[in-house]
Design brief:
- With 288 residues, this protein is mainly α.
- It has helices at 2-10, 15-49, 53-66, 71-86, 91-104, 108-125, 129-142, 149-162, 166-179, 184-202, 207-228, 235-248, 252-260, 269-287.
Length: 288
């Protein structure tokens, strides 16, 4: 009776009390859901500290489900992604969560970090080279001046190499050197051009057609590298590359001397001994 009198005095319809009750229930439910999310988050962190990573991820996922747009739910999504990536090796699930996090968070720095984590997993853990190329190209298109631009470009080239897209890889390495000549990756890229030519020569279906040309391009590239970076930690590897090209070109005397000069500097002396023994055997067979 009292409620009805209030309704009449305020000029509100009879449905007002019903809606008011539903609104109050919604607030109460939201508060309970948030408290539940907090409890799951606390449990997730405890499980994580105890080294129970799979159980921890399960709790983080519950937080994300209960608070999908809230800061706690978004934070839980990131914690779940990093745990799956680096403690459980569940890379596919980690990539999915990093993508969701990057879309949900309003923190641009954290979104960028998530994108970098995706690239790292695609490139270093999953060997998904097509996706790696596409991902890093998208990042460079969105942020062409980022500090990581040279590294992203290097990884695109390396992924092209892994896909046997040798011409594309060489072109991308050259673009890296032209755009970022002072970046540490430029030195590595110049060395990798020689490696790419050499590998391309090995993969030629008929080496007599283009093999000599490719190996000579590899030699030229390695020599350019050595001239520009004579003190590089990659210098011995570049000289080994030249020796390998000479061997493939059947210039055995020159190859033998090139390998012999590497006895004291090449990281794996045993490999040098094997190469020298093989050349001696080939020369002996010719003299018979």
């Amino acid at each position: 009776m009292v409620v009805e009198m209030v309704q009449v005095r305020l000029g509100r319809p009879a449905q007002f009390t019903k809606y008011l009750g539903l609104f109050g229930f919604g607030l109460l439910f939201g508060a309970c859901s948030l408290n539940s999310a907090k409890n799951h988050y606390i449990l997730a962190e405890k499980l994580w500290t105890d080294g129970k990573y799979a159980a921890s991820v399960s709790e983080f996922e519950k937080v994300s489900q209960k608070d999908p747009r809230g800061s706690l739910g978004i934070q839980a999504l990131y914690r779940a992604a990093t745990t799956e990536a680096y403690f459980l090796s569940r890379f596919n699930d980690a990539v999915k969560k990093f993508k969701l996090f990057a879309e949900a968070t309003t923190d641009l720095a954290l979104a960028w970090e998530a994108q970098k984590q995706i690239g790292e997993l695609l490139y270093a853990k999953m060997d998904l080279h097509d996706q790696t190329i596409e991902h890093y190209r998208d990042l460079l298109k969105a942020n062409p001046q980022v500090d990581e631009a040279a590294e992203f470009t290097y990884r695109i080239a390396k992924s092209q190499f892994y896909l046997w897209q040798f011409d594309d890889a060489t072109k991308t390495y050259q673009e890296l050197i032209a755009k970022y000549p002072k970046a540490p990756q430029a030195e590595r890229a110049l060395y990798e051009i020689g490696v790419t030519y050499f590998t391309q020569g090995e993969q030629q279906p008929n080496k007599k057609v283009r093999g000599p040309e490719i190996y000579q391009e590899a030699i030229d590239s390695f020599e350019i590298f050595l001239k520009k970076y004579p003190q590089s930690t990659l210098a011995a590897l570049a000289r080994f590359g030249i020796a390998s090209c000479l061997e493939e070109l059947d210039q055995l005397d020159a190859a033998f001397h090139a390998y012999e000069a590497l006895k004291k500097t090449y990281p794996s002396p045993r490999v040098i001994e094997i190469k020298l023994a093989r050349i001696r055997e080939r020369k002996a067979q010719r003299s018979r």
